[in-house]
Structure formats: C-alpha cells, structure tokens
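Archive record
______________

***
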Amino acid sequence: MFTRRHWLALALSLVTRPARAGAAGPLIATELLLEKPGKFGRKCLLLRPARVPETEALPLLVLFHGLAETGSEALGIRAWHDRYGLPEAYARLSSPPVERTLPRERYLTDARLLELNRDLAARSFPDLALVCPFTPNVFKQHPSAPFLDHYADYVEQALLPAVRAAIPTLAGPEHCGAAGVSLGGYVALEVFLRKPQLFAALGCVQAALSSAAAEQYARRLAELAAFAGPHALQLVTSSSDPFRDATLRLTKRLSERGVSTTLEDLTGPHDQRFLREVGTLEMLLFQARALHA
C-alpha cells in the first residue's frame, strides 16, 4: 500500500535541470509519430548515438519515465533526455574516466568510481539506440491490470514496429531491453512480465513497488525464468529511496527462488539529481552490457 511519503517521493522529479540549448551531444534526438497508438501516446522520442553511422543496426532500449511527467506527452517523452541526464550519462560512459558531476555529493563512491573506470578501461561502452514513449499514470486506473495489458500491447504493436521501421536495430529479443524509473520502473516490470518474448533485460530504478507486491513479483519472475529461461535483471535503489525496502525484499525473494539479479544499493535520494549523477549511469551501463552479451 502506498503512503503519503511514497506519493511525495514520486513527485520529487519535478526538480529539473533542462538540457543546454543548442549544445552538441552524444545522442541525436528525433520525435517519432506512431500510427494507430490508440489511447496512448502518439509520439515517442527516438535517440541514436551520433558517433555511429545511420546504417548500423544497434540494440534497442525502451525507457519509461516517472510520475511527474505523466501530465504531458511532450514532457513525458523527453523526460529521460531533458531531466534524467541520459545524454550526459551516455557521454560519461563513452569517454571515460567517469567523474562526479556533483562535487558536494558522494552518490558515486570512490570505490564505485574505481570499479566503473576499470570496467570501462577493460571493455569500452557499447552503443545502443533508445526510445522513450509516453508513460501513463497507471495508478489512476482501477483496475490497473487491463489497462497495463493494453499498454503492453501498445508497446509491442505500435511502438516497437515504428522504431524498427525508422532506424536499423538488431533483430531478436536478445537485443532489446526495458527499463524505467519510479512509476516507470513499475510499468517496465509489468510490461516485461506481460511481454517477456520481446526483451532480454529489465532495469528498475527506484521502482514504485510496495513491499507486499515484492512477494508476488518474485513469484512471477521466478515462474517466468523457469518457463522462458533467465533474463538480465537489475534493481537499483538508494539510501533515501522510499521504495528501498520493497526493492531489497524483491531481491532477497528472487535469490531464494534461484533467480539471479544485479542489485545496486546506492547512496542518495529519490530525485532527479540522483538520476543525473548515478541512477541513469548505472542503468545505462547494465543495459548496454546485457544487450550486447
């Protein structure tokens, strides 16, 4: 059950830092109009690395945004790009060594910085394409399950075909991932469970889950692993994340059921500063490694 503290945390992403106007970045952003979107978003934001030729096929990552941007399609599809630090994270991983961007904060510890940079020195960050659809506020839907069924169909039948018609992407579910933050982490999990044939990797950053729900998600993910084989799973939480207990419980229950999960239990709040400094960085590196495996 969500408390007032949970809902306040979901809204913390209102603290924004717009992308610099006119700044050359590592990602080329294009708004794509979807055919037959139904009642869901008519547009998505398609992102492709500038350093890769347009004809080169890449893995694809689908990114779901948080609660604060659910009131506007224009804000929603650009949330990862403009508010969550996606271009900056891509640039930091592409041109190591990774450094802190918040001099007074230690969301990235010295030990993790050393580990990250050793990893990137041994294996360069591999490129991928990204798509950011509009994420609806599913918490307003009662019941939510049928709504999520339709939204998952929208991802499969409208979003992914439009992206693959627009740019070359590597074929096969082994080269497609889903990730989200807060509300978007919950939506990514629900879409993944409904359409596991589409994805090889799932990332949930500070996902808006209750501790009680963690029990059922552990069971459903374990059943999926037994039926369809292992997927790459990453759960990211932090010291002041109101959903930390649920994330830790889910990780523990998955481990008890024999499901391998990568847990990142970091330092920091549930807000966009955390995302821009480390949350987006960790998610992006995990997905890129998984989708190129």
About this structure: The chain is about 45% helix and 20% strand. The first helix runs from residue 4 to 10.
